[in-house]
Design a protein that fits this description.
heterodimer, A: mainly beta, 3-stranded antiparallel sheet, 35% strand, B: alpha/beta, FAD/NAD(P)-binding domain, Enolase-like, domain 1, 6 domains, 6-stranded mixed sheet, 5-stranded parallel sheet, binds siroheme, binds iron/sulfur cluster, binds FE2/S2 (inorganic) cluster
């Protein structure tokens, strides 16, 4: 788990498993906080690497979201487009503690595409 | 008591001259094997004394079952007779159990008071049968099945005949039951779990075993809980079950499990959990005390089978003779020793999510085989009826061999899988006998499948619909495909409709049929029952399943919003910039100043960036934000407007022309009929979008002949057209029929929609559906029975009762506010809350 300041953005039960909710950041990229069917929580920038589709509105299956615009499949863990598609959306280190969701502040303010070698941080509810 | 002393040991000082003193507690399988292993490495290192509670030499405990069944005598199962002890200068003290270990003095003491010093002590006390704590457990006639004395008790009881109850349907219990029944007793097996030998067998094999035992005259009660053993004059007379059943019994065999015999070790202060804790060299927490066999716990595991003992004894002997090797734990396999029943199981067959099952069934020969594969390795196997390949599978399992190369032929066994030409699964299938069962679910044999193929079923789908093979759980799909290839030649096989998606081997049609057949009512249930290969599906199967369930169980199924595309989840069309468009319904294309005013107000209030008249005769407001949707809907609702479902796989629009009210050519009230039809059909979910139009005359200004359902009014009534499509491939409608009244037109419209809803595949519009099924099929389906139209229309109206609920009004009323609001907002300068 990376070190730094963590932002408390709300409780896990505010997100229905298998869906996402948006998190606008003033002056920065809007984020999408996902909770998978199995209860893991991931945060990525709410912008498809293809044509900026709002990923928060896609269908979540496993640890993947299908973009609502042209159905690219994006890994919630790495932000990477799966299959033949190529592209990557920044992921935000996320952890769940005591039923609350925390995002790494620095990454919220400066979202970065995860290093290919890094396994993206994830959190279980 | 029965003390045997090796002849040349009598009165000598051999103890000192021959080396260190090894004392073994337990003259059973592990204790004696350990000694054998040590002797084979170094015959002089130890001076050995073995204590055995049983008054006899070392015998093969697992063969007590054949002794009970009368297939073997005791003499035949002795492993080491007296001469072995004598020849190896081993002192055997039998019939005098050790009752205490003194680790300070380094000696053991027996029941008769005999004290024996040791340098090294080996505990090999095995296990004790577990006696379930029910009233009556101590009655005369309640026996266990562990040693020869138990067998003798059973044989004595069996001589008098009568009834026996065996408590426990595991390996031991079933072998006891088998023996007693061969000895002429009336046997009932009472088993707590729903499946016999549930630790070794899966449900299918457990079922076959139960059926076979019942055929042999035993009564097998599963899911049966013993409440009490009833006695008369201190002797067993019956067994009472929790459900009130009373089973008369002269003898009750407790075979409900075993517990490692750890009493001595515990009292001596050794570390004991479930078993005596040992390291990889079988050394206990006291370096001078070793332990081996069923009484130990190694790396968290206690074993109840002999194979692990052999491995343990080897490493124990290596250690005791200063060449430590280390025991790494065992994978076990089981066979049931009941003559005529071939049964084998090994490894783990609780197929997890990432496991793949390969199953083969041949009902006529009573064969069931299942191999569980994970990451291209065998992790478990259950074989019933034909266990010839058990050891081969077990070997592959233990060696963790990669089986991808033989994957296709694996289930047919070693002969097929390893023989070059036979590597081809088709060849293996070709070699099956005609009565070999292909589809276990529907009991279809190879012969039946082949004849069905020969009779014209040239695709998987055709086979499924004609003889039902592979139409249920789908696990035999590969076999059926091979049979098609073998029977027709690879190239002649017609590739049927594709499977729904990569998550399943079923086609859309199969899934729909199975939802009804198996009464499946929720997405996870469908995925479970139909062996979905992904944990929660994908973005193509989830919406399809949601629709199929909605259609199958109107009023009952709860719509799964997270399985819907965003448009249907947010009841608006998503635009390329992530905003939404809002299209209120305009019945039959008719509007009013009041509605137009409300639309204009809403467009201003919510800053619609474009207001456009659509090709579907209504108005579209573009550029609305997700958060504003409930607000704009509330405003439109207030003016009496509801959702136009411009976003849904659902009824879109009913276009009309002005008709007889105004038009000089109009023959009927096309506007009025259009409005009525839209009122009847709005809100209905469909396989794809569905468009209707009503034109007042054959000039057809409403373009009714390129709609899914089109009405063209004529003087004598209404021509009903179906299967039209504008869009990508324009298709003009087919004329379905002509009716005389509005009422009939409505009825036919409802019936046609319902047939489409129930039959078409998800995302298949009426045009391709009709092309696929044929107009003749459609007419046949609707008209061959005079009641069908009425019945379909009834079903449609019934399901409409649950869907004509304006989704906008629900949301405007606060429903699912989470879908329209942010989780939170972050403003970098005034962060909501901050934690270290
Ligand atoms: C708004 C509208 C265009 C317009 O401004 O007139 C429109 C807009 C869209 N059409 Fe259409 N179609 C519109 C009438 C039509 C018509 C004309 C009609 O209905 O009489 C057709 C041809 C008739 C037909 O469907 O058979 C039509 C054939 C299509 C097709 C091709 C369908 C096909 O079977 O080939 C698509 C693509 C699809 O559905 O997959 C499509 C898809 C779309 C989508 C939903 C594209 C999308 O997926 O985002 C557009 C959504 C825009 C939006 O956000 O509202 N639209 N579209 C019309 C809305 C009608 C309404 O009031 O609901
Ligand atoms: C009827 C039956 C059928 C079986 N069938 C199979 C099979 O098909 N396949 C398979 O793999 N396994 C089978 N088993 C299990 C197998 O027999 C055991 O795993 C194996 O015998 C265990 O060996 P052990 O030396 O640890 O224990 P045991 O063989 O039980 O030996 C322990 C010995 O220690 C003695 N003892 C205990 N306490 C003391 C004491 N204080 N002092 C002196 N002596 C003591 C006992 O009397 C006993 O003789 C079967 C078991 C039974 C009962
Ligand atoms: S014709 Fe193409 S661009 Fe125009 S609305 Fe329809 S889908 Fe969109
Ligand atoms: S914008 Fe996401 S797939 Fe096109």
């Amino acid at each position: 788990m990376p070190v730094g300041k963590w932002l408390d953005v709300g409780t896990v039960d505010q997100i229905e498993p298998g869906t996402a909710r948006t998190l606008p950041v003033e002056g920065r990229e809007e984020l999408a906080v996902f909770r998978t069917m199995r209860g893991e929580v991931f945060t990525i920038v709410n912008k498809c690497p293809h044509k900026q589709g709002p990923l928060s509105q896609g269908i979540v299956h496993g640890n993947v979201v299908a973009c609502p615009l042209h159905n690219w499949n994006i890994s919630l863990e790495t932000g990477r487009a799966l299959g033949d598609d190529d592209g990557c959306v920044p992921t935000i280190p996320t952890k769940v503690e005591g039923g609350r969701i925390f995002l790494l502040r620095e990454a919220v303010l400066n979202p970065q595409v995860a290093d290919a070698a890094d396994e993206a941080p994830k959190a279980a509810a | 008591m029965n003390v045997t002393v090796a002849p040349d040991m009598k009165g000598t000082t051999g103890v000192l001259s021959r080396g260190r003193k090894l004392v073994v507690i337990g003259n059973g399988m592990a204790g004696c094997r350990a000694v054998e292993e040590i002797l084979s490495r170094d015959g002089t290192r130890f001076d050995v004394t073995i204590f055995g509670a049983e008054p006899r030499v070392n015998y093969n405990r697992i063969m007590l079952s054949p002794v009970l069944a009368g297939e073997k005598t005791f003499e035949e199962i002795v492993i080491n007779g007296q001469d072995w002890y004598d020849d190896n200068h081993i002192q055997l003290v039998s019939g005098d159990p050790v009752v205490g270990i003194d680790r300070q003095q380094k000696h053991v003491i027996t029941r008769s008071g005999r004290i024996e010093n040791y340098d090294t002590l080996l505990i090999a006390t095995g296990s004790d049968p577990f006696i379930i704590p029910v009233p009556g457990k101590d009655l005369d006639g309640v026996v266990t099945f562990r040693d020869l004395d138990d067998v003798d008790k059973m044989l004595t009881a069996a001589e008098k005949g009568g009834s026996a109850v065996v408590i426990g349907g595991g390996l031991l219990g079933l072998e006891a039951a088998h023996g007693l029944s061969l000895r002429g007793m009336d046997v009932t097996v009472v088993h707590l779990m729903p499946t016999l030998m549930e630790r070794q067998l899966d449900e299918a094999a457990g079922y076959l075993l139960k059926a076979e035992l019942e055929k042999r005259g035993q009564t097998i009660l599963t899911s049966a809980n013993t409440k009490e053993i009833v006695g008369k004059d201190g002797k067993v007379s019956a067994v009472l079950l929790e459900d009130g059943t009373v089973i008369p019994a002269e003898i009750v065999v407790m075979a409900a499990g075993i517990r490692p015999a750890t009493g001595l070790a515990k009292e001596a202060g050794l570390d004991v959990e479930r078993g005596i804790l040992v390291d990889d060299h079988m050394v206990t927490s006291d370096p001078d005390i070793l332990a081996v066999g069923e009484c130990v716990q190694h790396r968290g595991l206690c074993y109840g089978l002999v194979a692990p003992l052999w491995d343990m004894c080897r490493s124990l002997a290596d250690y005791a003779t200063d060449t430590p090797s280390g025991y790494g734990g065992s994978v076990t396999s089981t066979k049931l020793k009941v003559s005529g029943i071939d049964l084998f199981s090994a490894g783990d067959f609780t197929s997890g999510e990432d496991c793949e099952d390969i199953v083969m069934r041949d009902a006529s020969r009573g064969i069931y085989k299942r191999v569980v594969v994970k990451d291209s390795k065998i992790v478990g196997a259950v074989l019933y009826g034909d266990t010839a390949d058990g050891n081969w599978y077990f070997d592959l399992l233990k060696k963790e061999e990669d089986i991808s190369d033989i994957r296709e032929a694996l289930i047919f066994g070693q002969a097929f899988a390893s023989g070059g030409a036979l590597l081809d699964p088709n060849a293996a299938v070709a070699a099956l006998s005609d009565d070999a069962e292909i589809c276990g679910c529907n009991g279809v044999s190879k012969g039946q499948v082949v004849s069905c193929i020969n009779n014209g079923a040239h695709s998987l789908d055709a086979v499924r619909s004609t003889c039902k093979a592979s139409a249920s759980c789908g696990s035999c799909t590969g076999l059926v495909e091979s049979l098609l290839a073998v029977t027709l030649g690879e190239d002649a096989v017609e590739t049927g409709p594709k499977t729904m998606c990569k998550c399943t081997s079923f086609t859309h049609d199969d899934v729909r049929a199975l939802i009804l057949e198996k009464n499946l009512k929720a997405i996870p249930q469908v995925m479970q029952e139909l062996h979905w290969s992904t944990p929660d599906g994908c973005s193509s199967c989830r919406p399809a399943l949601n629709y199929y369930l909605l259609c199958a169980w109107p009023g009952e199924y709860i719509d799964d919003q997270k399985s819907r595309f965003v448009n249907e989840r947010l009841h608006a069309n998503i635009q390329k910039d992530g905003t939404y468009s809002v299209v209120p319904r305009m019945w039959g294309g008719i509007t009013s100043p009041k509605e137009l005013r409300a639309i204009a107000d809403a467009a201003e209030k919510y800053q619609a960036r474009l207001v456009k008249v659509t090709g579907g005769q209504r108005i579209d407001l573009f550029g609305i934000k997700k958060e504003d949707l409930p607000g704009i809907w509330a405003d439109l609702n207030a003016a009496g407007m509801v959702s136009g479902h411009a976003y849904g796989k659902s009824l879109r629009t009913v276009k009309t022309c002005v008709g007889s009210e105004w038009c000089r050519f109009g023959t009927q009230d096309s506007t009025g009929l259009g409005v009525q039809i839209e009122r009847m059909t709005w809100g209905s979910w469909m396989p794809h979008k569905f468009k209707i139009a009503v034109s007042g005359c054959p000039r057809n200004c409403a373009e009714a002949t390129i709609k899914d359902f089109g009405v063209v009014c004529v003087d004598s009534g209404y021509e009903l057209h179906v299967g039209g499509n504008g869009g990508i491939h324009v298709r003009a409608t087919d004329l379905l029929c002509k009716v005389e009244t509005e009422q009939e037109a409505m009825e036919h419209c409802a019936a046609f929609i319902q047939l489409y809803r129930e039959d078409a595949r998800y995302l298949e519009r009426t045009a391709p559906w009709i092309e696929r099924k044929g107009l003749d099929w459609l007419k046949e389906a609707l008209f061959s029975d005079p009641n069908t139209v009425k019945e379909l229309a009834r079903r449609f109206r019934y399901s409409q009762r649950f869907s004509q609920d304006d989704p906008w009004a629900q949301r405007a009323g606060g429903d699912r506010a989470d879908l329209h609001s942010h989780l939170a907002e972050v403003r970098p300068l005034q962060i909501i809350s901050e934690v270290a």
